Amino acid sequence: MSTISRALAALFICAASVASVHAADEAVLNLYSARHYKTDEALYENFTKATGIRINRIEASDEQLVERLKSEGAASPADLLLIVDAARLWQAQQLGLFRPVESALLTDRVPARFRDPAGNWFGFSYRARVIVYNKAMAKPGDVATYASLADPANKGRVCVRSGSHPYNLSLISAQIAHLGEARAEAWAKGVVANFARMPKGGDTDQIKAVAAGECAVALSNSYYYARLMRSTQAADREIVARTGIVFPDQNGVGTHVNISGAGVLKHAPHRDNAIKFLDYLASNDAQRYFADGNNEWPVVPSVVVANPALDALGKFKIDPLPIADFGKHTAEAQKIADRADWR
Length: 343
Ligand code: FE
What we know:
- By secondary structure, this protein is α/β, with parallel strands linked by helices.
- It folds into two domains: 26-126 and 258-311, D-Maltodextrin-Binding Protein, domain 2; 127-256 and 317-339, Periplasmic binding protein-like II (D-Maltodextrin-Binding Protein, domain 2), CATH 3.40.190.
- The protein is built from 14 helices and nine strands.
- Strands 1, 2, 3, 4, 5, 6, 7, 8 and 9 form a nine-stranded mixed β-sheet that branches.
- Helix 4 (86-94) crosses helix 14, helix 6 (166-179) crosses helix 7 and helix 8 (203-211) packs across helix 10 (234-242).
- The longest helix has 17 residues, at 3-19.
- The N and C termini lie far apart (79 Å).
- The chain binds fe (iii) ion.
């Protein structure tokens, strides 16, 4: 063999071995995400800078991502699923989509109540289910508790989205955990009896209906209200000026919270990279970006977010019920919503 053909042969062998490198060794992470916030760009870029791992993102709604994973099955290229609400994480877990992760860093940094004990998923930010009230129509004391939403004193005054939505299913699940099924059902029926109108739209629509005086009070996730607080639009400023928010049950068990969370998928081709990304999400910097991007609170207790809306909302007592416990009651919560006619 000439020197040139020897060199060519060596090159060929080299190229062949590169091509045969297993997908698992690629510096790539395939992320299926239901998040779509501008600040997340910095989150992903910083991870790539620190690790050299490139992130391919598929962004869609929580339901679409779960459907896609179901249909892709074992052939799925996805490594990580990032979605919101314990009810949805629990559903993905029931479908067998995750493979549990053991990470000393994650169990150390993410409080036990914000993650699945078996390591199927981990929460990285939390949000509160708050009550928004019209300042001209209600006082904070009228809605100091979730129970007050079912109080006959609030008849014809309550707006809320569908009871089948994960945000409300998780709230009903928490009621079941605290009160038992019978009392939780009585509560749901009481809420429905107090409706100002039939459920329609999302949480922001309920806030707008409160500002417009269509209802006196409404349930909403905290970040929708915080987003309006940070808006520069005159119409949004007006909504905030006309309304206030209450963190329910501050003299009781505390306010119901839920999470944005992620889990490593069972068929992940780049499992190690996915675990690295979860570890990264628990880091101080990533915690700030992740929580701030959607006006949520970081799960790592030592991390502080500089967010004027969250500062204005202040500290509150959190219902200490473990997030993973909601899943146990989700199916019953759906039945209760149906029986209560909370459509
Ligand atoms: Fe939401």
